[in-house]
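Ticket opened by: R.M.
Priority: normal
Category: complex prediction / small molecule

The reporter submitted a protein together with adenosine monophosphate and asked that the result be attached to this ticket for the collaborator who will pick it up next week. Submitted input follows.
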Amino acid sequence: MSSLLPVAEALQRVLAAARPVSEAVELPLLKALGHVVSHDVVSAVDVPPSDNSAMDGYALRAADAGYPLPVSQRIPAGAMGTQLEPLTAARIFTGAPIPPGADAVVMQENCDEVSGVLTVRGGVNAGLNIRTRGQDIRSGSVAVARGRILRPQDLGLVASIGCATVNVFRPLRVALLSTGSELMEPGSGELPRGGIYNSNRYTLAGLLSAMHMECVDCGIVADNPEATANALVDAAARGDCVITTGGVSVGEEDHVKLQVERLGRLDLWKLAIKPGKPLAFGSIGDKPFIGLPGNPTSVFVTFCLIARPFLLKMQGANEDSPLSLQAQADFAVTRPGDRQEYLRVTLESDGHGLRALRHPDQSSGVLSSVSHSNALAVIPPGTTVAPGDSVEVIPLDFLVR
Ligand code: AMP
Ligand code: MG
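Result attached by the on-call engineer:
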């Protein structure tokens, strides 16, 4: 029996502990992209506000279509027509309100107008080319629901009901701490022997920024107990939650586990995930804490699969789990693993479907494997894959946004 914690179960546990922020702020629409709606946006109007023409053409009574019809008025978009008398037609343009008395619009391509008299080719049914009042949004209905992460099209929808602002949850403050005595900030000088540049900080800051959250940068902390404890207390004071990288294995240089246990509570999980086995989850005081592994690729994968849904729930978002697709594997997995593996792959469309090409180096320290890929292929524990098999893939664009 494996004592590894399945990814789905870890996710369930962190989600159960996520308490959403409650404070809301009102933002102008143009500043609201990516923020999470805090109150249902209810429309006070019908969209469109009246029946209107879907075409440039002629408005008439469908029953009159077989007769020569004098063109009695002209209605461009933005104008209002007048009552349409029987056996007449109105010249009308896309978006213009249907004049009372008309019940159809014939597109101009199916009409002949000679000396102000219209003849229509073919039959016409009532309702033809009419966009009805409220077809898009009815007055009193919810245009955009609480919990929605605002996408460009949602901003347009809110604008279409006449609202210039929208209420959103204030951005979550995520305190970020990089642990490791070997770490050095890029730009702060030449690497000493044994040193490496801190890359996790940048990956995570970018991921948080793509989620429109506030990254509270708590810098680097060296591998010693006092410094780690102080940095954790500081991070918990500054953020709504704390995310660290590194130091959660059980080596004697891994201080995060012990210090979080002292300051709050902690579960250390051996996750059934590859890359990224060690993951810590707990709290410092009343602030939730997630301790990601140190290896840069593990950081990316565990953040996207565990931390991201957790943070989105804290942010008040109603996000479904990321969509996955099926692709044909261009590779083999010959040995079944005991962990769910997230292979970094490049999806290519070959005209028939998707093919997944595996990055040649799947080591957890090789960040190029993420940077030079566009998807994760999900290989469940205990499975093998032969070239040509269908595998589940999650495009990175579904995770980084
Ligand atoms: P740890 O879990 O602290 O033992 O770290 C595992 C591996 O990830 C080590 O090789 C670390 O040097 C590396 N690592 C940890 N933190 C970072 C970071 N912020 N940026 C780049 N590599 C890191
Ligand atoms: Mg370390």
